[in-house]
């Protein structure tokens, strides 16, 4: 059972098997989330910029590098030259560019789903 009192933002794609696994883990551990379909309700550029900054992860980790939007948009050639603001705006403009699931709280940012990382961050 989670000791968290805040509700986390959970950006997911409803048909993504990894997102379903993450949602199941969150439910099993009583972690309260506000779920947002990433394609129709992506995080804002400000939320993404804040998440990237707080996570300490490289920009590229926030991009869904195996997705159609990434491949079709030629992002492999662009992403390394983007500023934090440019990357945040691009990700906010097309939620399918974002690696999912994306979980954001006041003291946590998790990109993708690894049970061990969720357990360590969310207890």
Tell me briefly what this model is.
Helices cover 41% and strands 15% of the residues. The chain is built from six helices and four strands. It has helices at 17-28, 45-55, 68-72, 75-78, 84-93, 115-122, and strands at 8-12, 33-37, 102-105, 108-111.
Which secondary structure elements does this structure contain, and how are they paired or packed?
Blueprint: E1 8-12, H1 17-28, E2 33-37, H2 45-55, H3 68-72, H4 75-78, H5 84-93, E3 102-105, E4 108-111, H6 115-122
Parallel strand pairs: 1-2
Antiparallel strand pairs: 1-3, 3-4
Helix pairs in contact: 2-5
The CATH topology, please? Glutaredoxin
Strand content: 5-15%
Task: Let me know the CATH homologous superfamily.
Answer: Glutaredoxin
User: How many domain units?
Assistant: 1
Q: What's the count of strands?
A: 4
| Rg from Cα | 14 Å
Label the CATH architecture.
Answer: 3-Layer(aba) Sandwich
Strands in their spatial order, largest beta sheet: 2-1-3-4
**Helicity range of the residues?**
40-55%
Number of continuous helical runs: 6
CATH class: Alpha Beta
What integer is the average pLDDT? Answer: 95
